[in-house]
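Per reviewer request, we include the raw input and output of the structure prediction for the construct analysed in the revised manuscript.
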Amino acid sequence: MKSKYAVTVDDLTVAYDYKPVLWDIDLAIPEGVLMAIVGPNGAGKSTLIKSILGIITPIAGSISIFGKPYKSQRKMVAYVPQKGSVDWDFPTTALDVVLMGTYGSLGWIKRPGKKEKKAALEALEKVGMLAFKSRQIAQLSGGQQQRIFLARALVQNASIYFMDEPFQA
């Protein structure tokens, strides 16, 4: 049975070096809702998102995506990371970055083909970055880089999109 909530967080506690930074967090996000997490720097917004995505392991609590653990629902979720958490010196083009969004559906061995390249080009067009498809990611402005990562998320055709500081740059 499908959960009425897209994301559910129950009694979540997250710590860095055994010091809690989030504790007793409860959250239920209904399907089809646009939601923002607002707060000052250091309040734990990114930590919450990374915990939901399994990037950070909580010390207590549970997280579910449509009523199931994140690991079994991974393909339903796309993520646009904070600009500071990306290695901008990695030698790759804008198109390559967007194609990375197709890897989850391809598996370990398959490489992106014509279908994936077409979807990636369409995503680049949606975010107004098609003309920059061959440009090195490091050669783009901060706002352009952000749009490339948005295109990478869009190409996944996910049910849930997490964006960590999407308006930065």
